[in-house]
Automatic annotation (TrEMBL):
It comes from Planomonospora sphaerica. This is Aminoglycoside phosphotransferase. GO terms for molecular function: transferase activity. InterPro entries: Kinase-like_dom_sf. Keywords: Transferase. The lineage of its organism: Bacteria, Bacillati, Actinomycetota, Actinomycetes, Streptosporangiales.
């Protein structure tokens, strides 16, 4: 992501402020009456930036680095912990080369930090991450007190796609607060609102620890099964809302050739498995090692924007297994239809036919997600993955 894109994103969070590159080693100029000056440092640098750390609040900056997911190995955890401890001293921030300056001369209350301080009832500063170029990219903020207490994570909808996903996640968090899936801790929604043309979703911060409490290969199968079971129902595929929804996707695809190929695939699946009874339930929609962390005997699980009901049981487990073979464009039929991937569904008690049906339906669901998100200029990064998945599905028909 270019430095200009970072500056553009931060400009939306500090409306009407002057956002610019801050030369290394130069102190901010004197602020005039009513001005507010904030500085951030790029980590690791502006060219490869993944995170903006707030300058001048070393404890908050250190906390922003203490985020650990299940996919981080021991060396990465140790390195991140040491960097966090060093940043808390304030010294490394003096030598990080690339910085961003925000100079605001408007009344207080017009920055995202002011708004979050009002919502949370305490003064906060934010770190900012954005992620790689993709259709669902959005700024994610961590709201932290100057003393280093993490209060919330905030997703910011600054595109139509991001706004839609944030609304979906807000609805999911409300539903999950009632369903309370066993073995899973879900962020609590603190506030969902429109602010200055942006969609804000403020959620409680789930704690993660530097120590790995489970081996890297541990998969939270029981928690996945528990989530599926909160909305469990047995249906034939032909009579399921899931297949009805997939049947509507070809009409939403702008490419007539791709739409026809998907329609033919759905006809094949309906003919092959229409009479098959499957267990349907809820799924997270993007359950991966980097979206979770073990906390004692439960799983802290975030990023619920793809949560849905009425999907075949086992989708989360297939997603967790296959998404570790990144990128999606590298998937082959031999990899996807290997005995190991099919065997991953054994904890859900499905036979071979049901396992093959579930895998075929998961790949189709994933293609439907990518092809819809890949339309328009903002979706261009997803198009190769959508095309690769459709080719893979066509090649996989003999194995279904």
């Amino acid at each position: 992501m270019s430095e200009s894109a970072w500056i553009e994103a931060v400009s939306r969070l500090w409306p009407e402020a002057e956002v610019s590159r801050s030369p290394r080693g130069r102190r901010p100029g004197p602020a005039t009456a009513g001005d507010e000056v904030r500085e951030f440092v790029y980590l690791p640098d502006a060219r490869r930036a993944r995170l903006l750390l707030p300058l001048g609040t070393p404890r908050a900056a250190g906390t922003a680095l203490r985020r650990y997911s299940h996919d981080l190995g021991v060396r990465a955890r140790l390195g991140r912990g040491l960097l966090s401890a060093a940043v808390r001293t304030g010294l490394p921030q003096r030598f990080l080369p690339d910085r961003m300056r925000v100079r605001a001369s408007h009344p207080a209350g017009e920055s995202v930090e002011h708004r979050l301080s009002e919502i949370l009832g305490r003064r906060v500063v934010v770190s900012v991450s954005i992620g790689n170029a993709r259709a669902n990219r959005k700024p994610v903020l961590q709201a932290i007190t100057p003393s280093g207490e993490s209060l919330a994570f905030v997703k910011v909808g600054d595109t139509d796609v991001a706004r839609e996903l944030i609304r979906a996640e807000a609805a999911a968090l409300e539903e999950l607060a009632v369903l309370r899936p066993p073995g899973i801790r879900v962020p609590r929604m603190i506030r969902h609102e429109s602010w200055r043309g942006l969609e804000l979703l403020v959620m409680s911060a789930l704690p993660t620890g530097v120590r790995r409490l489970r081996p890297s290969g541990a998969v939270p199968v029981a928690a996945m099964s528990g989530l599926s079971a909160v909305a469990a129902e047995v249906r034939t595929l032909a009579g399921s809302p899931f297949l009805d929804r997939l049947r509507r996707v070809p009409a939403e695809i702008g490419d007539p050739s791709a739409a026809a190929r998907l329609e033919a695939l759905l006809d094949h699946l309906a003919e092959r498995y229409g009479d098959l009874e499957l267990r349907f339930g809820a799924w997270h929609g993007d359950w991966t090692p980097w979206n979770m962390a073990w906390r004692r005997d439960a799983v802290n699980l975030w990023d619920w924007e793809r949560f849905a009901r009425d999907v075949p049981a086992g989708f989360d487990l297939l997603h967790y297994t296959l998404q570790q073979f990144r990128p999606t464009t590298s998937w082959t039929a031999d990899l996807v239809w290997s005995d190991g991937v099919l065997a991953a569904l054994e904890p859900f008690g499905v036979g071979e036919r049901a396992a093959r049906a579930t895998l075929a339906l998961y790949l189709t669901e994933l293609y439907a997600r990518y092809v819809i998100a890949g339309q328009g200029s903002i979706g261009e990064p997803l198009r190769p993955q959508a095309d690769a998945l459709l080719d893979l599905l066509d090649r996989s028909r003999p194995r279904m």
